[in-house]
Amino acid sequence: MLAVRTLSIMKRPITMASTPSTPPSPQSLPSKTTSLRTLSSKKPRNILTNPIPEEDPKWVPLNLSRSELYLPLTFPTGQTFRWKQTGPIQYTGVVGRSHLVSLKQLDNGDVGYYFHYTTSDSESSAAKVALLDFLNVGISLTEVWESFKASDKRFAELAVHLGGARVLRQDPIECLIQFICSSNNNIKRITMMVDFISSLGNYLGAVGGFKFYEFPSLERLAMVSEQELRAAGFGYRAKYIVGTVEELQSKPGGGMEWLAALRKVDLPEAIVLLCSLPGVGPKVAACIALFSLDQHHAIPVDTHVWKIATRYLLPELAGTSLTPKLCNRVADAFVRTYGKYAGWAQTLLFIAELPSQKALLNSTEEKSPNSKKRKLGGITKVPKE
């Protein structure tokens, strides 16, 4: 059981409905999947009042500072595999299941958005609500991080360079299927699988050379056999996806309602219920809970997080092997240090360990006017004078 320590963190008030929504390089779909893909709708909408422009679109500012949202530290970091980089500091994906949107980091630090294929003012309004919900803007990242910096010197050092790494609020079914695909897998193959699953939904259009689709409904996913998924390269995960879809369809009220209800239960109960689904273990369940179910103190523990924990939070366990019992101890250590948003802190510490971010941090420190340097967890750090 995770002991959650309450922090006095303010949530930014917003006036919007609470409706859920969800870059590595593009991957081509396997040729063996042709028979499946022909079942999905391939035609984009016929009525377009906001088509994809030939030149740069008119970006509408979100009025979020770089410290509240920095796209390169949010999208290509393993939270979602459905969003694609479609331009310089620009990412495109689908929110509210059917709204195709591009986000771009503007020169002034703000983030601009542009919706493709909106058909009316009311639809544009619904799309904006879905986008804000997906970006979790009801939570002030600045205030959360201030509490983290007060609790942990290491976090305070990293936060200077890694501002704006925000946790997303994805559609639970999208998140669930994506992380079943992620089990014991690599980014390239995960992306291929998620792209294939996505292609079973209704086609929304193309941006930056990528095709985008609505995420398929449970009814559509139920039409896919284990054999077809195996032929598409899913391996043993094919059985888990088919089994999970069947389980969700059997839930009272339907799978979507059942998953959404897990936002209202305690984290340990949510983990147990998620682990009842085929192919969902504690780590995958924690990812789903953190990235789609408002369980902000969920800690997905893998070998990378284990190394972070033994280096900074539980040094007495350095050199030991990770076990299920120790996974709980690691999660408890994060919660004791960071409180009810511990999952957000763990996400930033995880990002800091990615090779691309280590290189960036080293490069940043090398440009410092201070000549005296020391190493902090593999990251070059300039001590304060």
Automatic annotation (TrEMBL):
Source organism, top-level taxon: Eukaryota
Name of one Pfam family that matches: OGG_N
Known catalytic reactions: 2'-deoxyribonucleotide-(2'-deoxyribose 5'-phosphate)-2'-deoxyribonucleotide-DNA = a 3'-end 2'-deoxyribonucleotide-(2,3-dehydro-2,3-deoxyribose 5'-phosphate)-DNA + a 5'-end 5'-phospho-2'-deoxyribonucleoside-DNA + H(+)
One GO term describing the cellular component: nucleus
GO terms for MF: 8-oxo-7,8-dihydroguanine DNA N-glycosylase activity; class I DNA-(apurinic or apyrimidinic site) endonuclease activity; damaged DNA binding
Sequence ranges of Low complexity compositional bias: 28-39
Broadest EC class assigned to this enzyme: lyase
Subcellular location: Nucleus
Keywords: DNA damage, DNA repair, Glycosidase, Hydrolase, Lyase, Multifunctional enzyme, Nucleus
GO biological process terms on file: base-excision repair, AP site formation; nucleotide-excision repair
Stretch list, region Disordered: 13-52, 362-385
Enzyme Commission no: 4.2.99.18
Span of domain HhH-GPD: 181-347
Family assignment from sequence similarity: Belongs to the type-1 OGG1 family.
Protein name in the entry: DNA-(apurinic or apyrimidinic site) lyase
The organism of origin for this protein: Solanum verrucosum
